[in-house]
Structures are given as C-alpha cells and as structure tokens.
Amino acid sequence: GNELPVELCQTLLKMAPTAEEELKLRLYSGELSQLGPAERFLKILVDIPFAFRRLDSLCFMSSYQEEVSSVKESLATLEVACKELRNSRLFLKLLEAVLKIGNRMNDGTFRGGAQAFKLDTLLKLADVKGIDGKTTLLNFVVLEIIRSEGIRAGRAARESQSLSSVKSDDLFEDSLHETEKHYSSLGLQVVSSLGGELENMKKASMQDADGLSGMVAKLENALGKSREFLNSEMKSLEEDSGFHRILQSFVQNAEVDVKWLLEEEKRIMSLVRSTADYFHGNAKKDEGARLFVIVRIFLIMLDKTCKEVKESTVKATRIPRNKESPSLPPSPDLHQRLFPVMVDRRMDHSSSDDEDS
User: Fold this and answer.
1) What is the pTM of this model?
2) Alpha carbon distance 264, 236 (integer Å)
C-alpha cells in the first residue's frame, strides 16, 4: 500500500458496498465477464479479507504525517503567541496609556479610578472623536505614548551606541533634532513596529482552537480504529504479510506521537486560557481565541492611526514658515484641545521614561 496515493484510498473507501451488496457479490458464482466493470472490480475487492478496513488504515497512514505536522505547527504558534502577548512591554504600555486616559476622561464619575478595562474597549477607541470630528481617541493615545517611547529609544541608542534601528543622522546631526518633534518621530517608529513584534499572535488569531482540539481527537480516534483492526481482524487471519508488519510498526510509533500530542494540546490550551485570564480576568472557555482576534483588529487600527499621524506630521512640516519666526516644534498641548476634558491633565510619562532606564 505504500504506492497508493491518499486520494485514491479515499475514493476507494467511498465505493464500499453495503452489507447486502457485499453478500450478493460474495455469493455470486457465475462468470466475472457477465458482471459490469464496477461490480467486477468490487467482486475482486470483497474477496480480499477486510479489504476496506485495510484501505481505511492505509488512508490514515498516508495522511498521518502531514496532519501531525500541521497540529504541531499550530500548537507551537499558539504557545509563541501567548508568550509574545504577555511579554510585550510596548503592548502593556499601550494598555496602561488607554487606562490612564480613560480614567482622566471619566474623572469625577463612577467610572473614574478604574483599575482595569475590557479589551473590547480597544476596538472602540477609533469611534470616539474630538471636537474637530476627525481626531479619534486612538490618535490621542498614540500621540501620548510616542513621546515617551521616543525618549526611551533615543536614550537606549545613545547608551549602547548601537544605531541598527535608528539612523545616526536622525540622532546626532545637530542639537536642533533633540526636540519634542524628534522624539515623537522615534516613538512613532517604535509604536509602528508593534505589529511585527506580535507576528505569531496575528497568526494565532486565524486559528480555530476548537478545530485544533478536534484534529487531535480525530487522530486519536483513527489510531484507535487501526489498533483495533490490527488486534482483532488481522490477528484472526494470522497473516504474515508486508501490510501486517507495516501496520503493526506504524501503530506502535503513532501511539507515542499521539500520546505526546494529547498532552501537548492540553498544555497549550491551558496556556491560552491562562493568557486570556491574564488580560480578561476569569475568562470563559473561548476567550483565549477571542483575545487574539481582538488584539489583531486593534493592531490593524493602530497601524492605520500611526500612518495618519505620520502623514499629518509630514504635511505640517511642509507648511511655509515666516523667516523671522523660529522653527518650533508643534505645541504638545495641541491635540489636548481636541479633547477639552484632557486639558491640564497631561499624561505622566515618568513611568515610561524611567521604568526601563
């Protein structure tokens, strides 16, 4: 059976006769030439002991390695995704910024002073707009955090003298560049890179966790059928054939693999649930997969907002200035005027600046 393609095995299995049809074929004692091509072919097949059980095992053996590799790859992606999300300093800083801004907007109300928020809130940040009708709350969050991230990036580059991620002429061309505008530019680069940092998390969001568990259960069930066939029907035949030996060896090796997959699937799903609990509190069963989807959509929104901020900055630099007027960076409070509730409550950047110094 090593030469039979899996598609052929699957096609032959679909041709399996009913019990009544099989009985008629077995009892037929006439000339084979009197039968039609299909009946003649099936007559030869049913004369082979347990032909369709053999085909079922062959089909499983043919597709087994590809299915196991797919499950292993998916489980590995989920594991890395959980670690990426929990260990992403920048993502946690963004959540911190959203929480602080939300508390400032709700200051004096029953919603103020919150210790946490549901991650679904991230998807609503682009719906809340300032008095200009264009600038969203997500724009505000980005503008708030890029300054502190820019200072951190500039400091790290100076301390390590490693400019692999930042061009040297951006940092040290002259003292004029050591401005709010310069740090915001560096910070924008950092925030824009979050999607790349969480690449496996985005892949995990495309996976069906229940479907993955179902694939592992399917492999276990198919192995059980092959084991039962080997230990019952094949044993009763006392057949010493190449098929028998190959099936016996396959079942022994597959039992080790499937046992490992069952344990690994249980471990990874537990990790996914604990990650969901980390961000959601006591999460429901499907919160893990939903968490990845929420963050993926948020990253798309964040990337779009970063591009808008960059474009608006480029447009601002193209506006001709009066030669007598000094070239000053945009007022740091300009965006605050779009959200009046924020005035005189500028975000404290000290925690972002000093935490990793």
Assistant:
1) 0.74
2) 35
